Amino acid sequence: MYDTALLIGRFEPVHSGHLALLHEALRMAPQVIVVVGSAWQARSPKNPFTWQEREAMLRDALPLADRSRVRVLPVRDYYNEAVWVQAVRQGVAQHTQHGAHIALVGHFKDATSSYLRAFPSWALIDLPRQGSMDATTIRDAYFGATATTVDQALAPLAAQIPASTLAQLQAFAHTPHYAALQEEWRMLRGYRQAWSAAPYPPVFVTVDAVLRCQDQVLLIRRAHAPGKGQLAVPGGFIEQRETVWQSCLRELVEETHCHLPEAHMRAALQSVAVFDHPDRSQRGRTITHAHYFDLGDAPFPVVQADDDAMLVQWTRIDQLAGMEEEFFEDHFHMLDHFLTITGAPLRG
């Protein structure tokens, strides 16, 4: 018997495999902590539900007697395993006594499950696969349907989806979020299919510009899927005959009309960081080179939205922490790296 059992996942959405692991955790310990990942991410086809919506799915699928024994711990992605592991540890420590006997319950599905080995001080309970269902199959059927055909689309999978989750999926299909996510899902599906005939999985190279001036940062709202309407820093794909530096300046001009002399930009450049987490982009393996510029107290450059930006805006840095759920992919974490917004437990 353990003092606390842990379950870690994204639960997008909750299905029978998740519940089987959760019931095993409840059997092992009087208290269960469910670490819900990808918290505060903007909605996307991979992460369509807020952590609060996923908490409701988990709780509603449990008997009333068990709900009070479960504590949900939301944790952001960070796109850096060392930072994420310490955030999980700190969160768990707040809800357990020092020296508590803790078990981590999970299943090694594939390479994405390697995080289970990142907590050597906890007992790892590696269970066999619990059923044949996975959340990706559910999401593909769900977003491939329409608001009026969701029931039929999910019918072949219904035996492995809790009734409460099915009800929440049906209700969600009648919200504006569903239609927007469908558009994203179709775009990403087509994008991946277009590259499916390549002899090797493609690796894309992009650039981003984090431009600071008077303690504000330049942001855009994306005009197209993926991430239509979400906040991002200016950037895009490198072109064949460009260096990453040239691409960065070009994308900044194309999206914001921020015309500053190259010498001025070189003087303002503070650092360059590579963001290369394998899961940072749903379009596929994408490595970006983010350039951080600080114009100090200089006058704000004139900017105007264009190209892939529907809006361009200067935003106070002290307001960014409350805007995390509006950001495309890992762009909030990119800003956090340079500007230290969240006070992450450590830097990788």
What does this structure look like?
The protein has about 350 residues and is of the alpha/beta class. About 30% of the residues lie in helices and about 20% in strands. It contains eleven helices and twelve strands. It has helices at about 15-30, 50-60, 65, 80-95, 135-145, 150-155, 165-170, 175-195, 245-255, 260-270, 330-340; strands spanning about 5-10, 30-35, 70-75, 100-105, 125, 205-215, 215-220, 230, 235, 270-275, 285-295, 310-315. Strands 6, 7, 8, 9, 10, 11 and 12 form a seven-stranded mixed β-sheet that branches. A five-stranded parallel β-sheet has the order 3-2-1-4-5, sandwiched between helices. A hairpin with a 2-residue loop joins strand 6 and strand 7 (about 215-220). The longest helix is centred in the middle third of the chain and has 19 residues, at about 175-195. It is globular, with a radius of gyration of 22 Å. The model has no long low-confidence stretch (mean pLDDT about 95).
How much strand content do the residues show?
A: 15-25%
Question: Tally of extended strands?
Answer: 12
* Poorly predicted parts: none
C-alpha termini separation: 35 Å
Portion of residues within helices? 25-40%
Structural class: alpha/beta
Major pleated sheet: 7 strands, mixed
Please give the count of helices.
Answer: 11
Average pLDDT for all residues: 94
Task: Write down the overall geometry.
Answer: globular
Order of helices and strands: EHEHHEHEEHHHHEEEEHHEEEH
How big is the Rg? 22 Å
Layout: helices, strands, pairs:
Blueprint: E1 4-9, H1 16-28, E2 31-36, H2 51-60, H3 64-67, E3 70-74, H4 81-93, E4 102-106, E5 123-126, H5 135-143, H6 150-154, H7 163-172, H8 176-194, E6 203-213, E7 216-222, E8 231-232, E9 235-237, H9 244-256, H10 262-268, E10 269-275, E11 285-294, E12 309-316, H11 331-339
Parallel strand pairs: 1-2, 1-4, 2-3, 4-5, 6-11
Antiparallel strand pairs: 6-7, 6-9, 7-8, 7-12, 10-11
